[in-house]
Design goal:
The complex is a heterodimer of chains A (185) and B (204). With 185 residues, chain A is of the alpha/beta class. Chain A has 9 helices and 7 strands. In chain A, 49% of the residues lie in helices and 17% in strands. Chain B is 58% helix and 2% strand. The chains are: A alpha/beta (185), B mainly alpha (204). Chains A and B meet through α1, α4, α6 and α9 of A and α4, α6 and α8 of B.
């Protein structure tokens, strides 16, 4: 079993045993990729959208648990996740046989869109890994991109990064017509 | 060996070999069926590619081992790091997190007396890595015709100039000094946790 994947599983199992009530944990980013899509993906933190305070207290990056497993929860506000607003409805559950914590990971296409805002080399590494495993459906990605009205309207940089991503990794040229993304013929 | 490699990778591998060697995919099929034989130039390309695959496999195995040592809290000594650094850097591309981990270990275990690599690409990668670990290398960057790829972005972009433009924008000051297309690794290093358990010795 890959080291990071094993550490994340062990961390989550122990976290589950320590919390005092039931929680839902929504994961995005590299941690979600390692847990649900590509066990070989390297990551050191679990990006979680609005996790409960108890989860941060026991399993946050500065916690004893994070120190033990070298993996921890990194809390993020939903507003920082640059995916369409209905992203939660497309999350998939990850069954680790936990008693208290229900884990959901973002859909892979929303995960990718979440990385488009920054698109640093480590983000590209993660996306390339998903591409190599043939986990990306180009048409779904464009569909989700077009649903991401907030980001597309607000940020030229986001649109430019989306074009960059398509040309560098997906292998298609992306254009925008009347605000909608589509593949160039 | 190419035939074995194609058999083990499966669909798409023949195409990949054709691209690496610079021949049509059909030519590879002809070679496998003994209808044609590769010429000297093809053989050299194949040999280079096989050597690279072997180096990359060895590098990957070491990377996995290093991460295991990290997560299992084994003590990692400077001799192992010295060996692992060189072998890992021989790979064509290395993921940024492993580069961060190597830099992290070099920084914490102290400066090393690395032998100056004779091969220019390796020399520049090592110089870059040492400087990210706040170690002053005893050698200067080798002059290269174009910057080396360092981070793991094994992609075939539609537009190679676009990739180079992207990598140039991400390049750090150290990357420019050592002529490598690098990326910032400080945040990666900040997320790593230093633990050396005196009861656990590295099994290397």
């Amino acid at each position: 079993m890959e080291a990071e994947y094993r550490q994340i599983i062990s961390f989550l199992k122990e976290l589950d045993s320590l919390v005092t009530r039931k929680y839902i944990l929504y994961l995005i980013g590299g941690g979600a990729i390692t847990l649900a899509y590509d066990h070989k993906n390297r990551t050191s933190d679990l990006d979680a959208i609005n996790p409960a305070q108890e989860l941060i207290k026991i399993g946050g990056m500065q916690s004893k648990l994070a120190y033990k497993y070298k993996v921890g929860i990194s809390p993020l506000f939903e507003i920082t996740f640059s995916a369409p607003s209905d992203w939660k409805s497309r999350c998939k559950p990850v069954d680790l046989n936990l008693k208290n914590i229900s884990i959901f990971v973002s859909d892979v296409h929303d995960l990718i869109l979440g990385k488009v805002a920054r698109l640093e080399p480590r983000d590209l590494e993660d996306i390339v890994g998903l591409h190599d495993k043939k986990m990306i459906n180009v048409h779904t990605l464009i569909e989700r991109l077009n649903k991401n009205r907030k980001e597309l309207a607000a940020s030229t940089a986001y649109r430019n990064n989306a074009k960059l991503l398509f040309e560098l990794v997906i292998g298609h040229k992306l254009i925008f017509e009347k605000g909608d993304a589509k593949l160039s013929k | 060996m190419v035939k074995e490699d194609c058999a083990s990778y499966g669909y798409g591998r023949k195409k990949w070999w054709a691209e690496q060697i610079g021949v049509p995919q059909l030519t590879i099929s002809h070679w496998f069926a003994n209808r044609q034989l590769p010429n000297a130039k093809n053989l050299k390309s194949i040999q280079n590619e096989l050597n690279e695959l072997h180096t990359n496999k060895a590098s990957e195995a070491l990377r996995e081992h290093l991460w295991e040592l990290y997560y299992q809290d084994f003590n990692v000594d400077s001799y192992f790091i010295k060996f692992a650094t060189i072998e890992i850097l021989k790979a064509k591309e290395i993921d940024s997190r492993t580069l961060g981990l190597l830099s992290f270990y070099i920084e914490r275990l102290g400066a090393f007396d690395f032998k100056v690599p004779s091969e220019n690409n390796l020399r520049n990668k090592l110089g870059w890595l040492l400087e990210t670990a706040k170690v002053s290398p005893s050698f200067e960057p080798a002059k290269l015709k174009e910057p080396l790829g360092l981070i793991k972005l094994s992609i075939k972009p539609l537009n190679k100039d676009l990739l180079i433009s992207y990598l140039s924008k991400q390049q750090t000051k150290l990357g420019r000094k050592w002529h490598v297309f690098d990326c910032p690794i400080n945040q990666i290093k900040e997320n790593l946790i230093w633990k050396q358990n005196t009861d656990k010795l590295s099994v290397f």
